[in-house]
Design a protein that fits this description.
This protein folds into three domains: 287 residues, TIM Barrel (Alpha-Beta Barrel), CATH 3.20.20; 101 residues, Elongation Factor Tu (Ef-tu), domain 3 (Beta Barrel), CATH 2.40.30; 86 residues, Immunoglobulin-like, CATH 2.60.40.1180. It starts with a strand and ends with a strand. An eight-stranded parallel beta barrel has the order 1-2-5-12-13-14-15-16. A six-stranded antiparallel sheet has the order 6-11-9-10-7-8, with no helix packed on it. By secondary structure, the protein is α/β, with parallel strands linked by helices. It is 23% helix and 27% strand. The structure holds calcium ion. Calcium ion binds next to loops. The site of calcium ion has 5 residues, from loops.
């Protein structure tokens, strides 16, 4: 099956997302969408201003009056569950966004011992050990122990960014001292010496009580929401030993079919592959290097060598574990990992991830619906308009109808590449051709069984009809900086 995920949100989405999504499931189904990635449903520190990554209470999905009200940014628990039911009714799987790495907005301060570390090398100690007050105790007074009476305190955290000493606030990275030692766990990314710490109060996964609670929680979450899979945030920063144990628990005790997709943000296929192998292939990973290839190609225009477009991608290296995407909520303009693929190149990039043999593609909400937002950058208000990608619905339908069968690549020209999907015995698939320079063409031989067939561009960028000769050969054109998807005329 040619599955497609949609990331159904972006950083600046405003409004009741759960209800909006519930109204659109039939349309998404008609485009061939088979799964949706929804943002974190848990109550966060900034209340409705937070995006869900500043996690406060994992058991509050918009049910308790905490952090300024009952609903989260995206709606209430009841609306979330209804949206999931609606998706299932339309035959769409739901992947929940899960933040395991940190917590924010503790209810109480505790007196603890810490030392400060260098932000550039977290193994370098830059202070003596000293006693501070830190926000490390989570009692969730608004929930009153419903679903779980587990109290999080400094035994459950390994580091924090804000402490108070003698009434003065200090900001930095502070290693918390507890019974699990005074150094960071080693089985995380070694960027910045040790990348266990990302933000907020960093969860201590060497604490067996924490591991048990996180197993209890995911059991509750899967039973309560009935989601079909998980998108796990920020995996570089989490103990891979814990992750393996936790995911194995999910797959053996709770749901063997639970799909697990990880965000391991590295523009280096070797590091992603190493992580994926280490996790015993229990999880799929986003193809970050391919995103950066698209970004560079869109910036360089005709000076980019299209024959290298898939080079160094996770899709090429380990296709069965790869999820390819063009853009996401972190790479969009004004966001943390800003590397927005330019609009002209997006139809070309989407053709690659939607019509190639090996991809499990994930499309981005604003590329289907468009988006407008403002934010401040360097003290100035900046307005961003993300136009919807006009060709995207047609490319999705092309995936559903034509992207089947053997693939033959023609990656032989720096400015024009093509690939053929041979389809099935009954029907020919498609010829996809993209150009990042001038109008161009390729002569392609589809074999004698495709002789004397008429072809048209499914995207309607090219208007002519092409006929294969007695050998099955024809010349397929593409416009300047464009994409065409040639299919049998009688299939349109
Ligand atoms: Ca961590």
């Amino acid at each position: 099956m040619n599955g497609v995920i949609i990331q159904y949100f972006h950083w600046y989405y405003n409004g009741n997302l759960w209800n909006e999504f519930a109204e659109n499931t039939e349309y998404l189904k008609s485009l061939g969408i088979t799964a949706v990635w929804l943002p974190p449903a848990t109550k966060c520190n900034l209340g409705t201003d937070g995006r869900g990554y500043d996690v406060y209470d994992l058991y509050d999905l918009g049910e308790f009056d905490q952090k300024g009200g009952i609903p989260t940014r995206y709606g209430t628990k009841e609306e979330y569950i209804k949206a999931i039911e609606k998706a299932h009714h339309s035959g769409i799987d739901v992947y929940a966004d899960i933040v395991l790495n940190h917590r924010m907005g503790a209810d109480e301060a505790e007196k603890i011992e810490v030392h400060e570390v260098d932000e550039e090398n977290r193994n370098t100690v830059i202070s003596d050990t000293f006693e501070v007050l830190a926000q490390t105790k989570f009692t969730f007074p608004g929930r009153k122990g419903k679903y779980s009476d587990f109290i999080w305190d400094h035994h459950c955290f390994s580091g924090i960014d804000i402490v108070r000493k003698d009434g003065e606030e200090m900001v930095g990275i502070f290693k918390i001292h507890n019974e699990y030692g005074t150094v960071w766990t080693d089985d995380v990314s070694h960027q910045f010496g040790n990348y266990d710490y990302l933000m907020g109060a960093d969860v201590e996964y060497r604490n067996p009580g924490v591991i048990k609670e996180m197993k209890n929680w995911i059991k509750w979450y899967l039973e309560t929401t009935k989601v079909d899979g998980l998108r796990l945030d920020a995996l570089k920063h989490i103990s891979s030993g814990f992750l393996k144990e936790w995911i194995t628990y999910i797959k053996t005790e709770l749901d063997p079919d639970c799909y697990v997709l990880g965000e391991f943000w590295k523009d280096d296929v070797k590091k992603i592959t190493y992580f994926s192998d280490k996790m015993n292939n229990l999880i799929s990973c986003f193809d970050v290097p391919l995103h950066y290839n698209f970004f560079k190609a869109s910036e360089k225009g005709k000076d980019y060598d299209l024959t290298q477009l898939l080079k160094g991608s996770f899709m090429e290296c380990k296709p069965a574990s790869s999820v390819s995407f063009v853009e996401n909520h972190d790479t969009q303009n004004l966001q943390a990992l800003e590397s927005a693929v330019q609009a002209w190149f997006k139809p070309l990039a989407y053709a690659v991830i939607l019509l190639s043999e090996d991809a499990y593609p994930c499309i981005f909400y604003p590329d289907l619906y468009g988006a407008e937002y403002t934010d401040t950058q360097d003290g100035k208000e900046v307005k961003i308009v993300m136009p919807k990608i006009e060709a995207l619905p047609r490319l999705l339908i092309a995936r559903k109808q034509f992207a089947f069968g053997e693939q033959i690549k023609y990656f032989d020209d720096p400015n024009c590449i093509a690939w053929v999907r041979m389809g099935s015995d009954e029907n020919f698939g498609c010829v996809t051709i993209i150009s990042n320079g001038a109008e161009s063409f390729k002569e392609i031989n589809l074999g004698k069984r495709n002789a004397h067939l008429k072809f048209k561009d499914f995207l309607d960028h090219r208007k002519e009809e092409v006929t294969t000769d007695e050998e099955g050969k024809a010349i397929f054109h593409v416009n300047s900086c464009s994409v065409s998807v040639w299919v049998k005329s009688d299939m349109i």
